[in-house]
Amino acid sequence: MDYNTSRSTLIFKEYGRNIQELINDTVKIERVEKRQQVAEYIVSLMSQMNPQFRNIEQFRQKLWDHLFKISLYKLEVDSPYPIKEGDLIDLNHKRLEYPQSKLKFKHYGKNVETLITKAIAMEDREKQIEFTKVIGNYMKMVYKNWNQEHVDDDQIIEDLKFLSGNKLILSEDSNLDKLSRSNRNKTRHSNGKSSSYSKNSNSKGKYSRNNNNNNNRNKGKNNNYRKKKRF
């Protein structure tokens, strides 16, 4: 069986393996005219990936550049654009490491721990206290979004105390519902707008229907008046 793991690395994945194999086969063609025709045909196939840019000069130049890069500059054909030599692609890509961090409370996320670190580093005591209150409000909002249940302020205060290593402590009378209340007000305000809009549209519909009825009545009266006038 021929598996992808045993094949050569794809240089441009968006073109697929068939295009890459076509280019590699084109390199082996001995007749110059035939090789040129096949290369131009491959460029037209590559342009079908984005047909809306087919007639744009810069896009066609990019296709020819990709053609030579895929062939590792072994393809000897005439290009309508200058060939950028020496721009080889490193096929031994280094794997991009995903940042690994062990979160103490996953429902708070990484942002809360980052905010706590910044608050601990603050030298101004008053700013640190106010910033700690903001963090507590944010933690309660995030907790509610994650758990969809009521949470006591004491729980948030204890979690903040644990995450900060007893360096950030909120008082028991701290109000941690500011952010949650503002979110509720926003949703109510948006719902109120939609309901008022529907009411207005309904009232407009009633008003137009009433106007139509009045117009029909007036037309009927005018017709009766004309008939009486004739007789």
How would you characterize the overall build of this protein?
This protein is mainly α and 231 residues long. Among the domains are: 4-70, no CATH class; 109-175, no CATH class. Helix content is 61%, strand content 0%. The protein is rod-shaped and about 85 Å long.
Q: What attributes does this structure have?
A:
231 residues; 7 helices
Low-confidence stretches: 225-231
Query: Would you count the extended β strands for me?
Result: 0
| Radius of gyration, in angstroms, nearest whole number | 36 Å
Structural class: mainly alpha
Shape: rod-shaped
The major β-sheet equals:
none
What order do the helices and strands follow?
HHHHHHH
Distance between the termini: 101 Å
The helix content, as a percent range, equals 55-70%
Q: What is the average per-residue confidence, as pLDDT, rounded to a whole number?
A: 78
Give the count of helical stretches: 7
- How much strand? under 5%
Short description:
By secondary structure, the chain is mainly alpha-helical. The protein contains 7 helices and no strands.
